[in-house]
Design a protein that fits this description.
Structural class: alpha+beta
Pfam family, one: Acetyltransf_7
Shape: globular
Number of domains: 2
Radius of gyration: 25 Å
Largest sheet: 7 strands, mixed
Protein name: N-acetyltransferase domain-containing protein
Keywords: Membrane, Transmembrane, Transmembrane helix
CATH topology of the largest domain: Aminopeptidase
GO molecular function, one term: acyltransferase activity, transferring groups other than amino-acyl groups
Strand order of the largest sheet: 1-2-3-4-5-7-6
InterPro entries: Acyl_CoA_acyltransferase (IPR016181), GNAT_dom (IPR000182), Trichothecene_AcTrans (IPR052523)
Strand content: 15-25%
Length: about 250
């Protein structure tokens, strides 16, 4: 099992993989694309357009896990890690062209074409303060044929290393099936993406917001032995001086 950057040549295979992985997903599958079974190519096109549009975004890191089978390379998983420097202000916004693409997608429900963007306003307060700078796992997909083989964990750990490198936290909005994976990787729940009166995702299952804040901690190196010995010598001399001065005062 290896991990590498996603390339333009991977987009078609990754889009097909995402469509298979999201077929029964509550948000992208059932809510946003209720006609995906009637128009499977349009469902794949949603992922193809999304990946193509974001692949060269300098704030994103697109990675894939692959297995080599004889002379063929098989893509087994895909992740899109997004670097946020000011919370969710800006980076998750889609262009007008992206919105138009969704409206023309026959697999989609036009009423929910921008549901993710509309729901952000209810929960973006979680990405403020010390959490404003974060690596957000914006997308994680593992091919159903290759699940429970460690590919998802490998993709998550890659992003955690990015966060450690940059001294930031890591964050994710979990699906029902992904929650336990994230908890096992050190993420802790802080809220739900369905929060807030009028939230369009209010009745959706899953959706816990999790952060791994250990990645951003700067751990001080251990003091060397010579430093402790020097400190002890100083304290010993200071205590000896105090004893002598006290004895002089008492004798007078």
């Amino acid at each position: 099992m290896t991990i590498r950057q996603c390339t333009e040549g991977d987009i078609e295979a990754v889009a097909q993989l995402c469509a298979r992985a999201c077929s029964d997903d509550a948000l992208i599958g059932h809510l946003m694309h209720p006609h995906r079974k009637e128009y499977p190519d349009d469902f794949v096109q949603y992922f193809y357009s999304r990946i193509s549009r974001n692949l060269h975004d300098s704030a994103r890191c697109h990675i894939v896990t692959v297995e080599s089978k004889e002379t063929q390379e098989i893509i087994t998983g895909y992740a899109d890690w997004l670097r946020c420097d000011d919370g969710l202000e800006g980076p998750l916004r889609v262009s007008a062209n992206a919105g138009q693409e969704r409206l023309q997608n026959r697999a989609a429900n036009p009423a929910f074409a921008d549901v993710i963007e509309r729901a952000e306003s209810y929960t973006k307060h979680y990405w403020t303060g010390s959490r404003a700078r974060t690596w957000l796992l914006d997308f994680l997909m593992v091919d159903p044929c290759h699940q429970r083989k460690g590919f998802g964990r490998q993709l998550v750990n890659f992003g955690l290393e990015l966060a450690k490198r940059d001294g930031t936290c890591a964050s994710v909005i979990a699906s029902e099936t992904g929650y336990l994976l994230y908890v096992s990787c050190g993420f802790k729940p802080v809220g739900w993406m369905q929060e807030g009166e009028g939230n369009p995702l209010r009745d959706l299952p899953g959706g816990q917001i999790l952060f791994n804040e250990d990645t951003g901690r700067r751990i001080s190196p251990k003091r060397p032995i010579w430093y402790l010995q020097l400190l002890w010598t100083f304290l010993h001399q200071w205590l000896s001086t105090v004893v002598v001065v006290t004895a002089v005062i008492v004798s007078t």
